[in-house]
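ok so i was messing around last nite and threw this chain in just to see what happens. nothing serious, just curious
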Amino acid sequence: MVEWKISTGLTDYATAVAFMEARAEAIRAGTEDECIWLVEHPALYTAGTSAKIEDLTDPGRFPVHTSKRGGQYTYHGPGQRVAYVMLDVAKRGKDVRGFVKRLEEWVITTLDQFNVKGEIRDGRVGVWVARPDKPLTLTGQVAEDKVAAIGIRLRKWVSFHGVSINVEPDLEHFSGIVPCGITEHGVTSLVDLGLPVTMEDVDVALQKAFAEVFEAQISS
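result:
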């Protein structure tokens, strides 16, 4: 069984991390069910285990939290749905790359419900959308923007941290960092793409897509 928690308002980041670490330990011990926790945070930056200090271009702008997840700098804030994923990866095949691929598929399947084609790019973390409405890049390629981020950590085969989807955040807030170390591409959101999508719409889509991607894995 996977418990779904949905928090209203803004959730303190340190409180969220403490909850995730405790829940992950309880899942490993077999005393608690797996859990997906959907939250919004106040505006902040997080530094993953590969973060480079030069990518924090405006260090005094928002609080900066050191994170144990993989990846580099990312932004969290109002209008962004963060899905914290506390799952037993051991019973899901003990395949870390396969698990990350499932997370990517989960996000892509969620976006597909809004007719948004999310894509994965080699060498770039997260989920991307093509922007033919924007000028071509300097190399003559179609512009692409990041719509979702992925960053996890595993401890004794239990995951925590997770994914984030930009629903309607203030995209200017991303300018204080080099998101995930990538300078040649931009950031977008569902509302920026012209979709009148609410956080509640995304929550429903996340739960539906999770059943398709993850629960089908367990049943098979």
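not much to say yet. The first helix runs from residue 13 to 29.
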